[in-house]
Amino acid sequence: MPTLFYTIEDLGRGQTKESQEFNVLSTKDVDVVLVQYSYDSTGGLVPAQLEYTIGTQTIPVNGIYKSESTTIKFRNISAGTHKLVIHNAAIDINGAYGNGYIYY
């Protein structure tokens, strides 16, 4: 199964980042194994509030995943070229950090 690595570095409130393109050969589920976190103004860890999108499917993830990962699954992604779009949906925390692997 092909994989693609991505990183999130100081993704500001309301900002969006896209992964590199990846090609799905036939309709299938796509898994994203990720870590994500933010810091408050004092440097303490706080939950990141990110939205992950492939095509028309969006999965919100709210939490601190720094020392262990979590997995989200996009169902029935059609064949073709796609990108993972990551949006910082936080209203009070500015920078989000993390990384992950897209399994397609």
Describe the structure.
There is one protein chain. The protein has 104 residues and is mainly β. The protein has one domain (3-103): Galactose-binding domain-like (Jelly Rolls, Sandwich), CATH 2.60.120.260. 0% of the residues lie in helices and 68% in strands. The chain has strands at 3-11, 16-18, 22-24, 28-39, 45-46, 48-54, 57-63, 65-77, 80-82, 85-88, 96-103. The strands form 3 sheets. Strands 1, 4, 5, 8 and 11 form a 5-stranded antiparallel β-sheet that branches. A 4-stranded antiparallel β-sheet has the order 2-10-6-7, with no helix packed on it. It has a two-stranded antiparallel ribbon with strand order 3-9. Strand 6 (48-54) and strand 7 form a beta hairpin. The N and C termini lie close together (6 Å). The model has no long low-confidence stretch (mean pLDDT 96).
Summarize the structure.
By secondary structure, this protein is mostly beta strands. It is built from no helices and eleven strands.
SS elements, strand count: 11
State the assembly state of the protein chains. single chain
Helical region count?
0
Roughly what percent helix? under 10%
What's the gyration radius in Å? 14 Å
* Average pLDDT rating: 96
- The residue ranges in which pLDDT falls below 50 over 5 or more consecutive positions are none
Let me know the CATH homologous superfamily: Galactose-binding domain-like
From the N-terminal CA to the C-terminal CA, the straight-line distance is 6 Å
Main sheet attributes: strand count, strand direction, barrel closure: 5 strands, antiparallel
User: What characteristic shape results from the CA principal axes?
Assistant: elongated
What is the CATH class designation?
A: Mainly Beta
Find the CATH topology: Jelly Rolls
Helix and strand string, N-terminal first? EEEEEEEEEEE
Estimate what percentage of residues fall within beta strands. over 45%
